[in-house]
């Protein structure tokens, strides 16, 4: 090793120290924001979504949904509605990235609300940060029922259906749809779900609902591909080998697209009926697959562009299309509802936007109309679980070219209300 002269060593050390000091003294990267300016904002909301990868479409659509919500709030012209400043952070679907952004929102940006998050494992981490900071966390897309159960905290509120609601609806659907089959013999079910928190909770909630309903079924097999799996051929071949009456699948987004694309070249959809009661009916899936989307699949989503046929839903879908140039995914409606919910709860809390306890009480009593509410129904918050009570619509894939580039949408609807869910999971005060 060649020795470094003392004076040169000192110079190098000084240069390194200068670089470190300058780096840490520089302001962090500016965050993208929507809504009110920093000076005029009554409430700061930090929203976390993936903006790239297979889940990126849900994040990008959520941003448009937030813009629509802010526009809608402004159009109401009510002096009691707060001015919201919404900060946007790209989680990249990574827990470490989400944790860093969430901490910055509450510690540096003085956000009293966090919102969003697509991945349930990420949401569990974010809810812990919100609880430690005394901040609200409004869930708009993740679905694990554990967020309102063992990971519950007082200021967590979810404004879209969770896995318990969707899989209860799925169990009710199976009881009704397969009635003739079930009178003769048990229904053989295979399950395929992503190998992380969400996939396991879907399976747990689904079995619980089937058991409580007394549906006679047997398990042909369970399969657990990783997130962003590139090749599903092994899983597809195994499902064909199992020969179930019904395959229940809980993949979502690009993973579901990849699975269906690969399965259409096999006998799977001929051998078994196929269902996804969570996110298989999301519009971006229909748009991506076009006329390659198989007919007769049994699917659901947290929002549908073609149901319900209400003025509010038509406005939401068409205005989103006007601004974005394409039709919305379910993530857009979730983000839209989340921002509306924050504004309404804050407006009902004694007129003091810093009264977080008052906002919490208002959130527990919240009711509001959303684009996915059918005529005569209004979404409302369960004051005990902090889970919103909404309708679930399950349909079959049918030809429908009204929302290009999709060539297939859902139809032949079966609708399930919170009162139906409560027959399976009675409300306890």
Structural overview:
This protein has helices at residues 6-25, 56-76, 95-107, 120-133, 163-177, 179-184, 197-213, 233-242, 253-263, 268-271, 283-289, 311-324, 330-347, 356-364, 418-424, and strands spanning 32-35, 43-49, 84-90, 113-116, 136-139, 156-158, 187-192, 217-223, 246-249, 273-276, 298-300, 367-368, 379-381, 388-389, 392-399, 408-416. The longest helix is centred in the first third of the chain and has 21 residues, at 56-76. The N and C termini lie far apart (74 Å). The strands form three sheets. Strands 8-7-9-10-11-15-16 form a seven-stranded mixed sheet, with helices on both faces. Strands 1-3-2-4-5-6 form a six-stranded mixed sheet, sandwiched between helices. The model is unreliable at 1-28 (pLDDT under 50). The protein has two domains: 32-161 and 309-389, Response regulator (Rossmann fold); 164-301 and 392-424, 3-Layer(aba) Sandwich (Rossmann fold), CATH 3.40.50.2300. With 429 residues, it is an alpha/beta fold. The chain is 43% helix and 18% strand.
């Amino acid at each position: 090793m060649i020795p470094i002269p003392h004076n040169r060593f000192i110079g190098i050390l000084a240069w390194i120290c200068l670089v470190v000091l300058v780096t840490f003294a520089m302001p962090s990267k500016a965050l993208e924001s929507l809504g009110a300016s920093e000076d005029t904002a009554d409430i700061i909301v930090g929203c976390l979504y993936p903006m790239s990868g297979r889940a990126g479409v849900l994040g990008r659509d959520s941003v448009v949904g937030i813009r629509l919500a802010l526009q809608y709030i402004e159009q109401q012209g009510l002096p009691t509605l707060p001015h919201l400043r919404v900060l946007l952070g790209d989680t990249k679907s990574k827990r470490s990235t989400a944790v860093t952004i969430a901490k910055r929102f509450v510690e540096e940006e003085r956000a009293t609300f966090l919102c969003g998050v697509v991945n349930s494992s990420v949401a569990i981490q974010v809810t812990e940060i919100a609880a430690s900071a005394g901040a609200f966390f409004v869930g708009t897309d993740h679905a694990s029922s554990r967020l309102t159960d063992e990971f519950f905290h007082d200021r967590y509120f979810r404004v879209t259906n969770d896995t318990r609601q969707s899989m209860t609806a799925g169990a009710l659907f199976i009881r009704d749809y397969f009635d003739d089959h079930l009178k003769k013999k048990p229904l053989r079910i295979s399950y395929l779900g992503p190998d992380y928190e969400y996939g396991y909770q879907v399976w747990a909630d689904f079995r619980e609902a089937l058991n409580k309903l007394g549906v006679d079924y047997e398990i042909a097999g369970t399969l657990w591909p990783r997130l962003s799996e590139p090749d599903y051929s092994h899983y597809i071949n195994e499902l064909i080998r199992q020969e179930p009456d019904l395959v229940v699948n809980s993949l979502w987004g690009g993973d579901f697209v990849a699975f269906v694309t690969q399965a259409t070249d096999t006998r799977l959809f001929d051998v078994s009926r196929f269902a996804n009661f969570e996110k298989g009916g999301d519009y971006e899936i229909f748009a991506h697959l076009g006329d390659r989307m198989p007919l007769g699949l049994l699917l659901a989503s947290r929002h549908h562009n073609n149901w319900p046929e209400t003025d509010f839903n038509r406005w939401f879908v068409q205005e989103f299309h006007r601004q974005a140039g394409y039709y919305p995914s379910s993530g857009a409606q979730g983000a839209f509802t989340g921002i509306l919910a924050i504004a309404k709860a804050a407006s009902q809390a004694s007129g003091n936007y810093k009264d977080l306890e008052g906002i919490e009480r208002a959130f527990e009593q919240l009711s509001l109309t959303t684009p996915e509410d059918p005529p005569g129904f209004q979404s409302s918050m369960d004051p005990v679980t902090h889970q919103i009570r909404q309708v679930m619509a399950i349909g079959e894939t049918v030809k429908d070219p009204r929302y290009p580039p999709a060539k297939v949408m859902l139809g032949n609807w079966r609708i399930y209300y919170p009162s139906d869910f409560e027959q399976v999971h009675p409300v306890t005060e």
